[in-house]
Amino acid sequence: ENLRVAVIGAGRMGADHIHRLHTRIHGAEVAAVVDIDLDRAQAAIAEIPGAKAYATAAEAYESGDVNAVLIATPGFLHEAALLEALERDIPILCEKPLTPDAASAWKIVEAEQKLGRQRIQVGFMRRFDAEYAALGGMVRSGELGELLMLHCRHRNPDTPPGFTNEMLINDSVVHEFDVIRYLTGEEITSVQVRLGKATSKAPSGQHDPQHVLIDTASGVLVDVEIFVNAQFGYEVATQAAFEDGIVDIGADAGPYVRRAGRWGGQVTPSFIERFGTAYDVEVQSWVDAALRGEIGGPSAWDGYATAACCEAGVEAQKSGERVAVVLNEKPALYAGGAPRAA
Ligand code: ISE
């Protein structure tokens, strides 16, 4: 039978996933949307006959119409939503971060272990981006020799209301933490954050940009420019330095236009456009695996490991010191590692 999905959170990401599930994903349908703002919930399912809006997840689960859940609320609300979903023992796709810190993420890992099988896939969609997947293949094939360094640029035009200084790390750089683990196949061992001259375009409380220095277990040197009030548009790009070559991904694409004595093209406006196809591949991978009783991407362990990196990063923001990332023992449930994107 198809997945009948309850989408929790009808904000920008939830509404985009609802549209995706309804129009592009096969094997699943939107049965319910959950949001405390019922008007927003209703608006998100206006085009979906039969879908119902609820103020709480419990009501959606009790309706009997739901056999899977996509959690798209802000990260600080994920712990309660995940524990409630695990109680129902149904397939779960949880938008990143799993939770914002290591202790709460570990609670989720323990709860899933108690269930005895993996139900949680975490929404690190970059693993499903064609260029990141291809770069991962080059690392694994060894065709360019050993990977030595990664230079990451993560630029957002601006931030939504309530975006805190800590969220530069646990909501934005969290993607780099996961994709570094995915590309290298290793854990991250330390994080350092450098603060310099700040843009006047940042809302109060944010120090933007920041330069994040990251080491992996084998010593791959990573630097991340996180710049979330960059104004010009959205850019997520990575340059990988191997022993025998350099690989750049994330360059602007699209028509090169010459008109009225000028040339140019369009910069992607947001992650919705930059990673639209990656989200489609990610959600389809989740649905296909869930219909087999499996997960189709990053696991709760990946969510925990990145949460531990985020915690170290937030500490490093404050101290200016290089902070070690300390992980609990990886439970046997996750021994096989996250399935790799096709
Ligand atoms: C946002 O939540 C995302 O997931 C985007 O991919 C990322 O670029 C942005 O910085 C995050 O806040």
TrEMBL record:
Organism: Sinomonas atrocyanea
InterPro entries to which the protein is assigned, alphabetical: Gfo-Idh-MocA_inositol_DH (IPR050424), Gfo/Idh/MocA-like_OxRdtase_N (IPR000683), GFO_IDH_MocA-like_dom (IPR055170), MI/DCI_dehydrogenase (IPR023794), NAD(P)-bd_dom_sf (IPR036291)
Domain GFO/IDH/MocA-like oxidoreductase: 134-246
Organism domain of life: Bacteria
EC number, as in UniProt: 1.1.1.18
Family of the protein in this entry: Belongs to the Gfo/Idh/MocA family.
Gene Ontology biological process terms in this record: inositol catabolic process
Span of domain Gfo/Idh/MocA-like oxidoreductase N-terminal: 3-124
Name of the protein this chain belongs to: Inositol 2-dehydrogenase
GO molecular function: inositol 2-dehydrogenase (NAD+) activity; nucleotide binding
Keywords (A to Z) from UniProt: NAD, Oxidoreductase
Annotated catalysed reactions: myo-inositol + NAD(+) = scyllo-inosose + NADH + H(+)
Lineage: Bacteria, Bacillati, Actinomycetota, Actinomycetes, Micrococcales
Subunit record text: Homotetramer.
HAMAP family for this protein: IolG (MF_01671)
Keyword Flavoprotein: no
Function: Involved in the oxidation of myo-inositol (MI) to 2-keto-myo-inositol (2KMI or 2-inosose).
